[in-house]
Amino acid sequence: MKRNILSICAILAAVMTATVACKKDTAPKPPVNPGGNDTTPTPKRDVIAWVDARSNVFGTYGRLSDTAELKKVLDTLKLVGVNGLVVDVKGSSGYTMYPSSIAKQITSLDGKSLPANVDYAAYMLKEARARGFKVYASIVTMVEGDGGRRIGTIFDDPNMAQYETIVCDINGNRKKVTETGRNAFVNPAQPAVQERALNIIKEIATKYDFDGLILDYCRYTDIDADFSDFSKNEFIKYLETNFDDDKAKSMKFPQDVVTTWRSNAGQTLPATTGKYYNKWLMYRCSVIQQFFIKAREAVKTARPGMKFGTYVGAWYTTYYQVGVNWASNEYDPFNDQEVRFDWAYPNYGKTGYGEQLDLLMTGNYFTQIRLADNPATAHLKYHWWSVEGSLNGGMYITRNKMPLYGSIDMGNVDWKDTGEITKAIQYILGKASGGIMLFDVVHVYAPQYNRLKQPLWDAVKNGLKN
Prior knowledge:
Order of helices and strands: HEHHEEEHEHHEEHEHEEHEHEHEHEHH
Mean pLDDT: 92
Largest sheet: 8 strands, parallel, barrel
CATH superfamily: Glycosidases
Number of helices: 14
Distance between the termini: 30 Å
CATH class: Alpha Beta
Low-confidence stretches: 1-39
Strand order of the largest sheet: 1-2-5-8-11-12-13-14
Radius of gyration: 21 Å
CATH architecture: Alpha-Beta Barrel
Number of domains: 1
């Protein structure tokens, strides 16, 4: 699935460092409920385990390329209290884990293969159903190539290669994202990119009776994207249409968006911004919002009862960097007097896509569980780098428009011990309105893939006890 399973810590380090510029030093007041009643939904006990295909099927210590081992893992998941799965069916290569008429199917990687003639998606669905699980399919939406291995749709298909996202380097030079060593993100604004993704979504929804479809990586690669000529022209149209800007055509691009760049923990960030920067942030969010509207319609047309959802990082305070506003469109970060977001512009809130979702999974990937665990945050209500604070913030900005599933990363963060994992699971289950997502199954059964270097079955079981 998602974010290279072994690189989350680097991502978190970058985004956490980037938050230093955000002014959140004072304790915000609790949101006011005009009706005077507590409208927070009662938490559910949905316990969803994410199953990353690359790590669980093709990874060195993954077990799910073997059907007997796969059944054993699913049996143990049920035994410890899990009642649902997210099954990765399209990865960052752009290839699918099922026979597709649109994309190439991946059956082997790094010396490991699926059993002959096994449709992984169908098989996982059948076996999960046999154990009474809810089953959601997930796709890596806006990535079409594994940059490290140089495999995937971008490297196979010259037609798709022309849509690879263009990023700025620290000197302001524009280049393809794979030239920076990253995965082959594609430009979400390109009609051909959207059409391909929507066709895959329709194919999955038509072909398989999953309970839901989850979009992963439905975003820009980072704040340094997309600076293609196509995006420039689309941005000019956006300014002309939404701001009556008759001078937009004469902009200096990309300097009028970002004038100079800097490097921080491996991430390319704006050093000085241009006059169009804040509107550029809105433009990118509007692109993603409009795609979500189309994606939801695609799912509901193909299979009306299928749920539509997404995974996002819980760090909303910096998530604008990837062009995503996962809040409710009734939430206005520009005019919020409780929580300040200095990057927000008037009407930024209208780019929120929360109303399109039947469920939302947020990555609350922090070792600090309660706000009171740290004197520096004990007086806060919203703190985007703790489990409690980010769940408070997530439900606040989504206005409880959909069930929110808090998520725990069991393998890529530095847990003190298994007891802390248990505590985090217990806290999320008691707090989040939808339930919990456990990332990832491979971390639980393969000690080589978690920082504690031990099986985590007992930690999960103890966290899920009634």
